[in-house]
Amino acid sequence: MAGIGTEERENQLLLANNTRHEKSIFEELTNAATTTSRVRTFSNSAASGTLSRSDTLDGSKAEDPALDPTSPRFDVYKWARMILRAADNANVKFRRASFSFKNLEVSGSRSAIYFQPNLASVFMIPFRLREYVTFGKRPNKKILDSFDGLIKSGEMLLVLGRPGSGCSTFLRTVAGISQKEMIENFKGEIVYNSEVDNHFPHLTVRQTLEFAAAVRTPRNRVIAVSRKDTIKRITAVVMAVCGLTRAQNTRVGNDFVRGVSGGERKRVSIAEMILARAPIGCWDNSTRGLDAATALKFIQTLRTSADVVGMTHAVAIYQASQAIYELFDKVIVLYEGREIYFGSTSAAKTYFEEMGWYCPPRLTTGDFLTTVTNHLTRKPRQGYEGRVPRSPVDFEKYWQASTEYKALQDEIVQHERETSSKASAAEFKASRRAVQARHMWSKSPYIVNIPMQLRICTKRAYQRLWNDKISTLTVVIGQIIMALVVGSVFFGTPNNTGSFFARGSTLFFGTLLSALIAVTEINNMYQQRPIVEKQASYA
C-alpha cells in the first residue's frame, strides 16, 4: 500500500485464542499466546484443549453421498463434523485466534496524498512549494482515525461504509500489523483477499486450487494418508462448496484470455482463501460479481467455518442483504475514515434509531447503516431534526460518549488481561511446528520446505506452458524460422580468414534475436507480480 504509513499511539493487534461457546459444536476452549514487539503486542495461540461436539456421525461411512464432494447431495457441514471427529481421534489441534485493535490510526504522507485536478494545476506547482518542501516534516492525511474493536475466535465482523470511507484500508491494516512481526512469525495466519481477482490465466480452476492446497497442506493430516490424496480431496471439497466442480477443467482466464465467468473467477479467489486455512481471514468486497444466492452461500460457508473450526472473519460488503447481515456477529460502521459504531449486529439498528435516524420499513439493516453515512439519503426521525449528528466528527463524538463504547473498552481490557500469558506462545509455536514439513527451520513462516516448494512451482510452470501451447509454439517456430533465415544469408561461407566478419555476424544475429524475444517476457513478469505477492502472503 504505497504512500501509507501507520501511526500508533496505543495501537495493538492481538492474535489470540478466546473462550467462546460454539453453537452445539464446541465447548469452552481457552488458550492464548503473546508475542510482543516494540510498538504493538501480538497474541496467537493454538487450541490446547480437546475439540468436542454435541453430535457426531456415528455409523457414517465413506460411501455416504453426503460425504462425497462430487455428489449433488454433498453436505459440507456433515463432512466438516466427520473431519473434526477424525482430528479428535488423531489428536490434531486446530489453531483458533482472535484480534483486537485500540486507537488504530492510519495516515498517508508525502506526495501520494496530493492529486492534480487538471492540467493547469501542474503549472501551479511553483506557487505551492510549501506543500512539497516540508524541511523534514511530512504532511499527513488521516485515513483511519482512532479505531477500537475486538473480534473473538469464531466470530464474524461485517465492515460497512460507503466507497472511500476506509473499508479496504482497515482490512489491509488488520491483515498486516505489524509487517515485520507478521512476516517473521505469523505469515499465513492472517490472509487478505483483495477486491481484484489475480490468477494465472492459463491454469485451470483445479490446477489453481491444487497449487493453493499443496503449499498449505499440513504434515499432520487427517483427511487422507498421503499428501497427494489429501490435496485432491480437499480441493474437490472446496470446489463443491464454491460451486466450481463443473468448471474445474476450464481455464481461469482474465481480461485477455478466455476462461471462466467473472463470478466463477471471484469464487476461485474465495476458494484460494479457504484452502489457506488461516485462523483469520479479511475479505474485501468478496461478493462483487456474485449473484444474491451465491453471495449468501459464500457467507454461509464462512459462517460454517467460524462455527465448526473457530475461524475469525472480517468481511467488507457494500450491499448486504438481510439474510447475509444476520449471519454476522458484529458490525463496524465507517464514516469518512472514522468509526461511528462497533458492536453486535442485533443492536446496531436500535443504536442509530435511538440516535434519531429513521429506518424505512422495507430497508435492510445493512443498507440503513450505510445510508446513515450519506447526507443525501438519510432522514432523521420526527422531532430529531435538530438533534442528530451531522458530520463524521459529530458521529464519532456521539459514539465515544455512548454506553456501547464504554462496554467495548471494558471488553478489550478484559481480553488483554486474559491473553497476556507468555507461556502460551510456546504452545502456538509447537502447534505451528506440527503442521510444517520435516527438515524445516523452526522459525520459517512456510508450511512446506524448499524442495517441496521447488517441485510444486516447477509443476505449475509446466502446466502453464502446456495450457498455453499457442504462445509457446509461436516462440519456438519463430526461432526456427529466424535461424533458417540467418543461416541462409551466411550459407556457404568459406573456411578461411576472410569469413571472420560473416561468422561474427552470424553469432551476433543469433544472440540479438534471442535477446529481443526474451524482452517480451518483461511485461509478463510485471503482470505476474501481484499474483505471486498474493500467493506468497498465504503460503
UniProtKB/TrEMBL annotation:
Keyword set, alphabetical order: Membrane, Transmembrane, Transmembrane helix, Transport
Subcellular location: Membrane
UniProt-annotated stretches for the region Disordered: 44-67
InterPro entries linked: ABC2_TM (IPR013525), ABC_trans_N (IPR029481), ABC_transporter-like_ATP-bd (IPR003439), ABC_transporter-like_CS (IPR017871), ABCG_dom (IPR043926), ABCG_PDR_1 (IPR034001), P-loop_NTPase (IPR027417)
Annotated membrane topology: Multi-pass membrane protein
Gene3D superfamilies documented for this protein: P-loop containing nucleotide triphosphate hydrolases
Transmembrane residue ranges: 470-494, 500-519
Domain ABC transporter, chain residue ranges per copy: 127-361
Keyword Iron among UniProt keywords: no
Pfam families linked: ABC2_membrane, ABC2_membrane_7, ABC_tran, ABC_trans_N
Any one annotated GO CC term: membrane
Stored CDD domains: ABCG_PDR_domain1
Compositionally biased residues, Polar residues: 44-54
A molecular-function term among this protein's GO annotations: ABC-type transporter activity
Feature: compositional bias, Basic and acidic residues: 55-64
Name this protein carries in UniProt: ABC transporter domain-containing protein
Species of provenance: Pseudogymnoascus verrucosus
